[in-house]
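User: Predict structure, ligand manganese (II) ion.
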Amino acid sequence: MKYLLSSVYLATFLAVSGAEHEHDHHADQMPLDYVKYPLEPLYHTSAGEVTADAIFSGITTFAKLPWVQCLTKEKGELFDIAFIGAPFDTGTSYRPGARFGPAGIRTGSRRLTLYGGYNVPLESNPFQSGLKIVDCGDIPVTPYDNKVAIKQIEEGHKALLHRETYSPLGNDSVTGQTLMPLSIDGKHHPRVITLGGDHTIVLPLLRSIYSAYGPISVIHFDSHLDTWKPSVFGGAPSDVAAINHGTYFYWASQEGLIKNGSSIASASCLNTHPHGAIRTTLSGLEDYDNDDDAGFKRIEAREIDVIGTDGIIKKIRETVGDAPVYLSIDIDSIDPAFAPATGTPETGGWSTREIRTILRGLDGLHLVGADIVEVAPAYDTNAELTTIAAADVLFEVLTVMTKTPLGKVQGSQ
Ligand SMILES: *[C@@H]1O[C@H](CO)[C@@H](O)[C@H](O)[C@H]1NC(C)=O
Ligand SMILES: *[C@@H]1O[C@H](CO)[C@@H](O)[C@H](O)[C@H]1NC(C)=O
Ligand SMILES: [Mn+2]
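Assistant: Predicted complex:
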């Protein structure tokens, strides 16, 4: 029944975007037709019309996307892009509360589809790309045992990543040649956008990503390095404590999940993971050595004063090149003036406008997946600044993803 319903959504969407509706721009902009008139007529105007669903009513999913229970035993439901929450915050060093991040971000996202969701600067509507986008709810995560929780997140993400896609990969829009998947298993995988959770969740997410793409490049926005050795960050009193939100990239590198780099200056061009918005204090400059060895290229938050958003975008694109890339966004990359509700706030960050511009600058890159982490709504203002910022940031990411299919033409690298 669920499957049938979703086919109806798509069929309706295809019909609405057809040429015969050119005169009705408002209807064209209704994403997947799930916002408009979902209810039995409760009130009739004189013209016999029913009222539309309000943007502030109803059960909250990300951007009011259809909710699909993706992690049930029947795995019938297919999609192209899925949002999933990972409500885990027991790897946090300072202020806890990111377990409420997924719920908060969904609340902050409710207005994304008001007027339909057309992204003006990117000249594209992610909700009308023809791809099927759903909200899968949250991965069940235990708050009592980090080892189990990290395994649950990996398995939950894998269950989505290894599902067939709803839409075929298709052909190159310029040459018309058939596109080939970028994965190492030769399959076309759906894309998953994870709502954190503290940053520890990226270790299990990268374990999952590795199963489809092998060692990957990462674009990381954060005020902190997160490549710290456990002996430096937390003191590692146990194996479980050694994996936390300041060390997960160290482990990802040790496990071979991400491409390595080098701290030897002459080989620094090997470093393929841009770190944007860095402004943390250090235990000492030697923290940069393991950051280099893990393959990161630091872009300090303050560089924006000199080189601007264009310069930051240029640096990121030069570092990742054309490689498939995973995107991880710590909300603390944004200045606490704009996003105060986070576990370890650092002043001197980027504005919401700046990070959105920088994210749009990733247009054309092959983003295999993404996450936003460290949103802890309990520390937000009454105006929900942080959760709205998180949702709007993901709107840019979603638009970039829907614009570029995850494929290459044969013969290109
Ligand atoms: C893609 O190209 C193949 C031939 O290379 C063709 O058979 C197929 O119909 C094309 N698909 C679309 C959606 O245009
Ligand atoms: C990166 O280096 C670590 C530590 O030397 C190693 O265990 C890992 O396999 C390397 N990763 C890759 C992708 O080669
Ligand atoms: Mn972080």
